[in-house]
Amino acid sequence: MAKKKVAAATKAVEKKAAKKKPAAPKKTTSRETLDAVRAQQTQFEGDGFPEPPPKEVCDARDNYLEAKRAAAAASEKKADRHERLVELMHEHNIDRIPLDGENKYFYLDASEKVKIGTVPKEKRDNRRAAEKK
Q1: Cross-strand partners of 96
Q2: How far apart are CA 105 and CA 114, in angstroms?
């Protein structure tokens, strides 16, 4: 009985294998071909830069470049202030500090980053009630 089940299962597997399409051959690229393609791509595609560039394009380029540089400067400033805040919080043994006029606060996490947390509703109501008194 077991031999019949095994034979039937084997036939079913063979039928499925016969129905499958053969896998497409993998495309291979030799190292020499890759080097030849890279050597050809050393120049601009097309005719290069239009001469002279339109004024509105130059203005847009200059505005974008100015914004990009301002964002980089702001990022550096933010990183410096973040570092200073972490230093001062450690110096004064503070692990959290409220934000002005909000139900949120800054806190230090385990990786020494300043994160923003939200005051739970229960404590928010108690704080407001205390402020009203």
Answers
A1: 107
A2: 10
pLDDT by position in tens, the chain (length 133): 566 666 666 766 676 666 666 666 666 666 667 666 665 545 556 666 667 888 999 999 999 999 999 999 999 999 999 999 999 999 999 998 988 777 888 998 888 888 888 888 877 765 545 555 5
Are 133 and 107 members of one domain? Answer: yes
Domain encompassing residue 83: 53-94
Measure CA of the first residue to CA of the last residue in the chain; give whole Å: 88
> Do 87 and 100 sit in the same domain of this protein?
no
Phi-psi category of 46—alpha, beta or left, where left has phi over 0 and alpha has psi -120 to 50?
left
Helices (H), the chain: 2-19, 31-40, 55-91, 121-132
Tell me if 8 is assigned to some domain: no
Cβ atoms of residues 119 and 105 within 8 Å: yes
- Single-letter residue type at 64: Y
pTM exceeds 0.85: no
- Residue among 95, 93, 120 nearest 110 (CA): 95
